[in-house]
Recover the amino acids of this structure.
C-alpha cells in the first residue's frame, strides 16, 4: 500500500495514510479498537445480513469469534466459541444462502470443514470432509484474513 495515500475497503473501513484503519461511515474519523490479541485473525463478513461488512475477529488461541455487527454497533458486540484446534483456519462465508455470513473453520490436520449455519444456529452445525493434503489451502473470499 506504499504507493496509495488512502482508499475505501469493503464495509467502509478507511485505510489511512499511516496504514491504520478507521470505520468512517458509522463512527466518523475515530478509529475503532477491536481485537488486539496476538492470536487474533480478522474475519470481516456480513454476519447480520444488512449488506455491510462487519468487523470480526477469530481468536485462534481460544477458538472464540467476536463480531461487531454493523446494524447494532458497539452495543451489539457478541462472542461465539467455534473452533480452537491449533490447525483451524477461519473460513466464514454464507454457506446456507440466507444472506448472513456463517462461522466456519477448516481443520487442516484432518481436512474437514465445520459450518455453523446462521439460519439454524448451533443445532445445525455440520462437517464436511474435503481436503486434508498437507499442501491444501482453503480458498475463501478474504485470503488476507488467513495470512
Ligand atoms: Ca453487516
Ligand atoms: Ca448464512
Amino acid at each position: 500500500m506504499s504507493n496509495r495515500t488512502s482508499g475505501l475497503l469493503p464495509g467502509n473501513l478507511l485505510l489511512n495514510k499511516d496504514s491504520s484503519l478507521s470505520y468512517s461511515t458509522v463512527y466518523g474519523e475515530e478509529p475503532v479498537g477491536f481485537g488486539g490479541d496476538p492470536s487474533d485473525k480478522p474475519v470481516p463478513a456480513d454476519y447480520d445480513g444488512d449488506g455491510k461488512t462487519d468487523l470480526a475477529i477469530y481468536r485462534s488461541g481460544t477458538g472464540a469469534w467476536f463480531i461487531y455487527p454493523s446494524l447494532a454497533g458497539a452495543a451489539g458486540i457478541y462472542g461465539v466459541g467455534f473452533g480452537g484446534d491449533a490447525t483451524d483456519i477461519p473460513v466464514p462465508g454464507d454457506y446456507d444462502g440466507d444472506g448472513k455470513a456463517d462461522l466456519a473453520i477448516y481443520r487442516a490436520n484432518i481436512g474437514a470443514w465445520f459450518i455453523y449455519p446462521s439460519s439454524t444456529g448451533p443445532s445445525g452445525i455440520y462437517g464436511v470432509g474435503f481436503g486434508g493434503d498437507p499442501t491444501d489451502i482453503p480458498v475463501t473470499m478474504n485470503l488476507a484474513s488467513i495470512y
About this structure: The chain has one helix and eleven strands. The pocket of calcium ion (ligand 1) is lined by residues 46, 48, 50, 52, 54, 69-70 (CB under 6 Å). The two ends are 16 Å apart (CA to CA).
